[in-house]
Specification:
The N and C termini lie far apart (54 Å). The strands form two sheets. Strands 3, 4, 5, 6, 7 and 8 form a six-stranded mixed beta sheet that branches. β1 and β2 form a beta hairpin. The protein has 17 helices and eight strands. By secondary structure, the protein is an alpha/beta fold.
Length: 412
């Protein structure tokens, strides 16, 4: 029964290629094909690239371009040339079978993490041979992209930062552990959104969150005016200590928490009472509505009324910012679609072989998301973002230089 519920490699490949990540797959296929050709040429001439040996049969002599049509799209290959004799990639004959092998190898690295034994078996079953060291080298190509993405400098100001975590299963020390994938998503001063950082940790401890946030600062995160997250104690404390910015509690998570203290038949009515607080015309009106809601709930649901009253400042923090930004600041919903993308891929994997494979998958999805956002419509218009800084100036709040902000945040 369990076997019938598992997706085959080919089904996974087709599913991914139908989704929105064809560019990542296509680039990965190209990189894998290039590495396979380099490995074949090295074996043919009896020497690695740049290696000096008397036993070599001939020498390399540049490259020739060749287009390769695959289900992942058209790929431009650079086929190595040799001085004596000729070389033609074995995986191009026959095309259909070799394409399945290459895409499957990439899929194994892209979706399932790197398991050299499994990849080796898969490649051999489809008619190709590649050593475990070559599989690891191919995976290292993806890791180079991941490292460059995770360590890139952050330029400019990021006034709004959203932070969230997702639990995944990872094999560690012979045991399967539940670990947290943490993601930081931010709105740049130009209005575009961007995933600025991600990591994997043992749990959502304050120490882990502090280290993660400090790594963002070290890469150049400055100008944070509002941090949005759920109410995890460790995260909340770390945000206050490291960023020192006002905190907005995610209203979606907040309502979900309140519903946990009510009967199921009371959920709809409770949602209607709470949601009207977050659609007020201004902060004063919102506080009035919250007071009315507390009074209304005091008799029937006193615990919920107390929780609502205690959370007043945290759930209404977004009202201090431009009105046009309110719908996009009161929850971590901007991260929800990305988290769903992670979930769809991690559900296929089930258990990751190690932290690196999980980071590799999430990073490749983050790269793809950032590319889409870079060429797409701004999350908040540049003109609207300008009002944010005008408001700060009118309130006589000094705009610190980036150097001053970095120094203060790193000292936290």
């Amino acid at each position: 029964m369990a076997g019938t519920e598992r997706m085959t490699i080919e089904e996974v490949v087709r599913k991914v290629l139908r989704d929105e990540h064809g560019d990542v797959i296509r680039e990965s296929v190209r990189a894998v094909a290039q590495e396979l050709m380099e490995a074949e040429v090295s074996e043919l001439i009896g020497a690695q690239r740049g290696e000096r040996t008397e036993d070599r049969a001939t020498h390399r002599n540049g490259y020739r371009p060749r287009r390769w049509d695959t289900r992942a799209g058209e790929i431009e290959l650079q086929i190595p040339k040799i001085r004596q004799g000729s070389y033609f990639p074995s995986f191009l004959q026959p095309r259909k079978r070799s394409e399945q092998a290459l895409v499957s190898v990439v899929q194994q690295a892209y979706v399932c993490g790197v398991s050299t034994r499994r990849v080796d078996q898969l490649v051999e079953s489809l008619g190709l041979r590649i050593s475990k060291s070559e599989v690891s080298r191919i995976a290292a190509l993806l890791d180079e992209q991941v490292t460059a993405f995770r360590e890139r400098p952050l330029q400019g100001r990021y006034p709004y930062v959203f932070v969230d975590a997702k639990v995944e299963k990872v094999r560690d020390g012979g045991r399967v552990r539940r670990k947290c994938v943490v993601v930081a998503h931010a709105v740049h001063e130009t209005g575009r959104r961007e995933i600025i950082g991600l990591d994997v940790g043992e749990g959502e401890t304050e120490a882990f969150w502090r280290e993660f946030l400090r790594s963002l600062i070290a890469r150049g995160l400055v100008g944070v005016q509002l941090a949005i997250s759920d109410a995890h104690p460790g995260l909340k404390a770390a945000l206050a200590q490291v960023l020192g910015a006002p905190w907005q509690r995610c209203t979606v998570h907040f309502l979900r928490d309140l519903r946990g203290h009510a009967r199921k038949d009371q959920h709809d009515a409770l949602g209607a009472v709470i949601r009207q607080i977050f659609t007020a015309g201004d902060g004063a009106d919102a506080r009035r509505r919250l007071g009315d809601a507390v009074a209304q709930l005091q008799g029937r649901l006193p615990k919920i009324a107390a929780l609502l009253q205690d959370a007043e400042d945290d759930v209404l923090a977004f009202y201090a910012f431009p009105a046009g930004h309110w719908p996009k600041l009161r929850s971590t919903n901007p991260l929800e679609r990305f988290n769903r993308e992670i979930g769809r891929r991690t559900d296929v994997v089930g258990i990751f072989p190690d932290d690196a494979s999980l980071i590799r998958l999430v990073s490749m999805l983050a790269i793809e998301a950032n590319d889409e956002w870079l060429v797409g419509r701004s999350y908040i218009s540049r003109q609207s973002m300008a009002t944010l800084y005008e408001t700060r100036t009118e309130r006589n709040i000094p705009l610190k230089t980036e150097e001053e902000e970095v120094s203060e945040l790193l000292a936290a």
